[in-house]
Every structure is written in C-alpha cells, then in structure tokens.
Amino acid sequence: MVKAFLGLGGNVGDARRTLDEAITLLCGKSGIRLLARSSAYRTAPWGVEDQPAFINICIAVETSLTPHQVLERAQAVENALGRDRGNERRWGPRPIDVDLLAYDDLKLQTPELTLPHPRLFERAFMLVPLAEVAPERMIGGMRVREALARLDRRGIERLE
C-alpha cells in the first residue's frame, strides 16, 4: 500500500455536494482508502478567469492501485459526475476535476500522467488544502508547507 494525494475541485452546480460524491466514488471501492480530507476552500479561477470561483479540497489516501489505475478511477468518477473533458474549455468551468497530485515518492512522466503533478508548485489552490493534510510531506524534493510559503494565497478562503 502506498500513500497518494488527490486534489478535487469544481465550480458548476453544488460543488461541495459533488466533491463529497467524488470522495465516496473514489474510496467506495476496493483499492483506495481515505486517510484524511482537508477543509473546503473557495478559490479564484486559474487559467480562465471569467468563470465562477472554485471549491477545492485535497484528500490523502492509501492505495494498492497503480498510479495509472488511480488516474483511471479519477477520470471514471469525473465522468460519472458529469464532466465531459472532450467538450469543455481547457481550465474552464466544470462540475468536478480530480487530479492525482502525488503517488508516494514516485516521479513519473508518461503521455497520460506526470508525477508529481506538473503544476503543483505553481498553484496555491492545490497547495493550501494539501498543506492542511500533509504540511511536512516531501513531494518532488520540496516540503509542502515550504512550497506554499513561496506562493500568493490571496483569493483563497477556507469555508466552514
């Protein structure tokens, strides 16, 4: 079993409910067990700014699945919850987005998957919830809390 971290977000419909459903679908089958869940955060859109704010969370899981199997499950969850990657604007509005941020200490680069997530250290909206569940975790040679300290956190609001 290895530890993995996933970032989840969405900004279409009832995003908080959708995030809850995504966690249930991700962890409701064998192979992935939820270890920790961050608070929900309202975050400004990244990439395409003319859209509603996102709700983002991070989860820590224990898994017996390979990284590609985790990715496959994440994409199946996205599809089940209404995401249509083929017909959406890149970085645009979406009901759910599930990103595999890190898988143990694995470094991987394939056409389908790069680990750790290639833009993890550029995105405070990923690092804020990740730092809540794993502030001391080393990912890609960098401690999560130290990576977050380098970024602007304005526009990120912790929700009750």
| Helical proportion, percent range | 25-40%
Question: Average pLDDT, to the nearest integer?
Answer: 94
Q: What is the second-level CATH architecture?
A: 2-Layer Sandwich
CATH topology label: Alpha-Beta Plaits
Q: What general outline do the C-alpha atoms trace? A: globular
Summed up, the helix count is 4
Note the gap between the termini: 32 Å
Report the portion of residues in β strands.
25-35%
- The structural domain count equals 1
Sheet with most strands: 6 strands, antiparallel
Full CATH superfamily name: 7,8-Dihydro-6-hydroxymethylpterin-pyrophosphokinase HPPK
Unreliable spans are none
- Structural class from helices and strands? alpha+beta
- What value does the Rg take, in angstroms? 14 Å
Top CATH class:
Alpha Beta
Beta strands, count:
10
SSE order, one letter for each helix or strand: EHEEEHEEEHEEHE
Describe the secondary structure blueprint for this structure.
Layout: E1 2-10, H1 15-27, E2 32-37, E3 41-43, E4 54-63, H2 67-80, E5 97-103, E6 108-109, E7 114-115, H3 124-133, E8 138-139, E9 142-143, H4 144-149, E10 156-158
Antiparallel strand pairs: 1-4, 1-5, 2-4, 3-4, 3-10, 6-7, 8-9
